[in-house]
């Protein structure tokens, strides 16, 4: 089964972001990690990244139209994009929000997620394993 794994702004630059927060995996390494975790759980991951809100909204529309489950790290959009929230709400297949870091242990503006309310669940704080755990949760939700 196909799963869309959507990554928001600045995640393509993991190699130059703060490694004490985001770890030392580059974005291409993260993509390889996600694809392998997906395969172990019986999924084929289509992993995408965009810095553009509209593009992420189009991808969520695609998931809604084609009934594809979603794992999404909306990155900074998590904290303020009502447009991404509304698009995520259209997805009727399971949708899981993930974060590499634990936003609740960071600055106060990161404590709000406008996406969580329309996600089946949120996993954060486990680095790349947040994605692996999300894929395990997805498998459980679907079977
Ligand atoms: C993030 C957390 C967000 O607060 C931040 O803006 C990101 C990445 C994470 O994966 O930990 O860009 O979503």
Automatic annotation (TrEMBL):
**Matches recorded under Pfam families:** DHquinase_II (PF01220)
Q: Which UniProt keywords apply?
A: Lyase
Its EC number is 4.2.1.10
A single GO molecular function, which one? 3-dehydroquinate dehydratase activity
Identify which top EC class this enzyme belongs to: lyase
The answer on whether this UniProt entry bears the keyword Oxidoreductase reads no
Q: Does the keyword Lyase belong to this entry?
A: yes
Give GO BP annotations, semicolon-separated: quinate catabolic process
- Name of this protein: 3-dehydroquinate dehydratase
- Per the UniProt record, the source organism is freshwater metagenome
